[in-house]
Structures are given as structure tokens and as C-alpha cells.
């Protein structure tokens, strides 16, 4: 058990406490015999003492994003009243692609415990937004829409749950609709991705592209590690594709 908590502690910062830490403690207790949430809390106390002695730690680490993702994913997957295997497979595949098989397997052990616990999305999001950058929160939202789309049938409950999470994370409606449009085909999807309407002038289209390219540039999440830069590149490519589509339509 010691090695497992050391693995956690090595990659966690702000999530090693609060409602996210409580969910992690519950998850560990669900698959480790004789381990209680109180013991995990003691691990948290010991780890926080180490952090206070290390002035150079960053506020948000790669593991913070990882744990935030696991907790929010469990909330979205359960929002339609069932747990779909395709959604679970999406989470596992995404984690393998980002972190490698060994780390992903450890994370998924946690996930199987976290998904059994009732978690307050609002409390978790308050903890996240106090410590995580806006660019990282946008990345979380992007992944959650991917989960909702994984079973090829998006329910209104799933969309509304992600909308609530978006609000709790202080992500505005325009950003929410922009990321949502990256996953759902519609006649005006390219315009929604750039946060403009079809009535926008050619100059407004160009300005919107420059603004969105800056907002979603992969460098914004570079502090979280290369594994998260790869995910950010997907969003960035969606912005570029939307702009190219509009240019082609307008003959720009």
C-alpha cells in the first residue's frame, strides 16, 4: 500500500485533500482490504508536511489533472443513470494514450472505486477552479464531451451535467458551446467553434480565429506535461479545421 500512496503523492498537489482527496481515499479503501479513509487522511497529512518543506512545488501537477479527470468523468458517466462500457473504455484508452499502460492501470483501479461514490460536482469544481488555470479547465471540459460521445448517443442528462460542471468551473457559455460544437455536427458548427455567427464579416472571422488560436494553444497547458499537450493539440486542430472550412465556404 505504501508504494501506491507514494505513486499518488509523487503526482498530486492540490487534489490530495478536499472532496477530490476524499473520493480518492474512498476508492483506495474499496479495493485494498483493511485500508480505511482515516489511514488515507493520515497519508495526506504526512504529504502536506512534505509539501510545506518544499517551497518549489507547483500548485497544479500532472497528477492533479489526472485525478480531477477521473472524478469528473465518473460524474458524467453516471449522469444518464447507467454505466456504459464504451464510456469506460474511452476513459481507459485515453489514459493509456496519455500516461502509458502501467500508470493508466493504477489510475483505473482508482476510477473503479471512485465511480461507486456519490460525489458533489459543485464541491469538486470549486476545489479545481481555485487551483487550476482556465486553459486546463477547458481541457477537462473537452475530455468530458469525449466521454459523452463515446457511446454514440448523447443524452440530455449528460449535456446538462457537463453544462453544470462548466458553470461550476467558471467556463463561460461561449467556451462551452465552442467545445461542444467540436463533437457535434451541425450546419453552423464551424462558426460555433470560433464563437461567432454566420453573419460575421470576413474580418471578424479572421479576428475570431486569431483569438481562439491563442486561447487554445497547446503551450497553455505545457506546465502539466507533454501528455496533456497532446490532448490540447486536438482542440487546437479543431479550431484550425473550423477556420479552414469557413474560408473554403467564403472563398477567402
UniProtKB/TrEMBL annotation:
Superkingdom of source = Bacteria
Does Membrane appear among the keywords?
A: yes
Kindly indicate whether the keyword Membrane belongs to this entry.
yes
InterPro entries, per database record: DjlA_DnaK_co-chaperone, DjlA_N, DnaJ_domain, J_dom_sf, TerB-like
Q: Which residues does the UniProt record annotate as the domain J? A: 189-251
Q: Which UniProt keywords apply?
A: Membrane, Transmembrane, Transmembrane helix
What transmembrane ranges does the database entry give? Answer: 7-32
User: Matching SMART domains, A to Z?
Assistant: DnaJ
One Pfam family from the record = DnaJ
CDD domains xref list:
DnaJ (cd06257), terB_like_DjlA (cd07316)
Coiled coil location:
none
Instruction: Write down what this protein is called.
Output: TerB family tellurite resistance protein
Which organism does this record belong to? Polaribacter marinus
Amino acid at each position: 500500500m505504501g508504494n501506491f500512496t507514494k505513486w499518488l503523492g509523487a503526482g498530486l498537489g492540490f487534489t490530495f485533500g478536499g472532496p477530490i482527496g476524499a473520493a480518492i481515499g474512498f476508492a483506495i479503501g474499496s479495493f485494498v482490504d483493511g485500508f480505511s479513509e482515516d489511514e488515507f487522511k493520515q497519508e495526506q497529512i504526512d504529504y502536506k508536511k512534505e509539501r510545506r518543506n518544499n517551497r518549489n512545488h507547483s500548485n497544479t501537477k500532472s497528477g492533479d489533472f489526472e485525478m480531477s479527470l477521473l472524478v469528473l468523468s465518473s460524474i458524467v458517466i453516471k449522469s444518464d443513470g447507467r454505466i456504459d462500457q464504451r464510456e469506460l473504455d474511452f476513459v481507459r484508452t485515453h489514459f493509456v494514450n496519455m500516461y502509458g499502460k502501467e500508470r493508466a492501470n493504477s489510475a483505473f483501479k482508482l476510477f473503479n472505486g471512485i465511480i461507486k461514490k456519490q460525489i458533489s460536482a459543485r464541491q469538486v469544481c470549486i476545489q479545481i477552479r481555485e487551483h487550476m488555470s482556465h486553459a486546463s479547465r477547458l481541457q477537462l471540459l473537452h475530455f468530458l464531451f469525449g466521454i459523452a460521445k463515446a457511446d454514440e448517443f448523447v443524452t440530455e442528462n449528460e449535456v446538462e451535467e457537463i453544462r453544470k460542471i462548466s458553470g461550476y468551473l467558471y467556463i463561460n457559455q461561449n467556451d462551452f458551446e465552442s467545445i461542444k460544437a467540436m463533437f457535434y455536427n451541425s450546419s453552423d458548427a464551424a462558426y460555433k467553434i470560433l464563437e461567432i455567427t454566420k453573419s460575421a464579416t470576413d474580418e471578424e472571422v479572421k479576428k475570431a480565429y486569431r483569438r481562439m488560436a491563442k486561447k487554445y494553444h497547446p503551450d497553455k497547458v505545457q506546465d502539466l506535461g507533454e501528455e496533456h499537450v497532446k490532448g490540447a493539440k486536438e482542440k487546437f486542430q479543431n479550431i484550425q479545421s473550423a477556420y479552414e472550412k469557413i474560408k473554403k465556404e467564403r472563398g477567402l
